[in-house]
Amino acid sequence: DPHTTEYIERLKEEAKLYELIVKCQGYLEKTDNQRALARVMLRRVELLYFKPDAVNVSIEETVAQSLGTPAVTDITSLMESLCGRLYRAKSDRIRTRTVLCHVFHHALQNRFHKARDILLMTHLQESIQNADVSTQILYNRAMVQLGLCAFRCGMVKEAHSALHDINSSHRNKELLAQGLMPQRISQLTPEQERLAKSRLLPFHMHINLELMEAVYLVCSMLLEIPQIALFSHDNGRRKAQSRIFRKYLEVNERQPFGGPPENTRDHILTAARALYVGDWRKCQHYIKAVKVWDLLPESEKVKEMVSRQIQEEGLRTYIALSQNYYSTMSIQRLSEMFDLSITKIRSIFSRMIVSDEIDASIDGQRNIVIFNQKADSNDRLKWLATQLAERNHGIQESLDKLTEQHSGITVGGSRGSRHAGA
């Protein structure tokens, strides 16, 4: 139980353990025992990678004061030095775990590009399934932290991509070694249950699951809502990037009574519905009301980033839903509606035109956007008519089959009666 005094007391002893590891490292460096030295250095890295720099500096100062050595104040340089030496180790497991710890630490410090580059250069995604269970758990933790880092840096697509596999599995707690699913426990033998519980991480190493889900759902909202608006009439043209988000959204829309949102997921789904109808201010209100953002460092900057993304995606959604009803749109008017600069409005239109999301052109002199109307521009009506025709055809085929079956039974019955009479 992390809330007991015993847990706190055990946690305070971590500094003594770290001091012992530093002493062992110094001894093994003198004796030149490279194999044991690599294992000890890995243990040191595993005690450093998940903590903020301020905590690590405090521990280093305590250890330096106890050993009478200069204190390390630059944790990034220390991690670079330790990981650089461990990359030359002979053990594949030690190298793999070092890479994942290094990626996690870079992501924790908002160095997304460095963390991503290390992960891509090692090609761990292709071979992680062959690693042991504890290393796979560390990989999952590194990917989640990388996704949270991308979100804090304003990279929505990258955050969604990193978090997608964990959140779509419905086993995020188990995959991160932060608990076991009740239905999963009932399927395990006592020995397997004991082994699974031994892999669970202590509470101070946990990643907040509610925060992870909130980040994933917000990223899904920003990616999916404009796509739903653009291609809702086109059956199968664009594959859903987040099936689980669309499922949540459909369930939320089917509710007979929509009360006020009660939890984080409800807030985000309500915000998504507001974004779909173009009410970006209401969407911002619901997203900012999510309390879990306070767990992020510099949460106000994160809220501002999300608010800006909502304005831009709200504009894209409005354009997608309105393009069939307007021949022209005033860029100045859109700038006032969505509180965006004219340069930003033009940039968004240009991206949509280049990606073939809309068929339009920008008139720079009159500061308007001209939509190229077609004879069959009402695609949604055309799609609905096609769907109706296909369903009618399916119903007709079913009726024909039933009629044939019924006729066959009647003819067979009458033939059987005549044969019996004969």
How does this model look, in words?
There is one protein chain. It is built from 21 helices and three strands. The longest helix has 43 residues, at 379-421. It has helices at 5-12, 14-31, 34-48, 53-67, 75-86, 92-108, 112-122, 124-127, 133-152, 156-167, 172-175, 182-185, 190-198, 209-231, 243-253, 264-276, 280-288, 299-322, 331-338, 342-354, 379-421; strands spanning 328-330, 360-363, 368-371. It has a three-stranded antiparallel β-sheet. The radius of gyration is 30 Å and the shape is globular. The chain is mainly α.
Sheet-strand content, in percent, reads: under 5%
Shape: globular
Distance between the termini: 88 Å
Structural class: mainly alpha
Q: Could you give the topology of this structure?
A:
Layout: H1 5-12, H2 14-31, H3 34-48, H4 53-67, H5 75-86, H6 92-108, H7 112-122, H8 124-127, H9 133-152, H10 156-167, H11 172-175, H12 182-185, H13 190-198, H14 209-231, H15 243-253, H16 264-276, H17 280-288, H18 299-322, E1 328-330, H19 331-338, H20 342-354, E2 360-363, E3 368-371, H21 379-421
Antiparallel strand pairs: 1-3, 2-3
Helix pairs in contact: 2-3, 2-4, 3-5, 3-6, 5-6, 6-7, 6-9, 9-10, 10-14, 14-16, 14-18, 15-16, 16-17, 17-18
Task: Describe the structure using short key phrases.
3-stranded antiparallel β-sheet, about 425 residues, 21 helices, mainly alpha
Give a quick precis of the structure:
The chain has 422 residues and is an all-alpha fold. It is built from 21 helices and three strands.
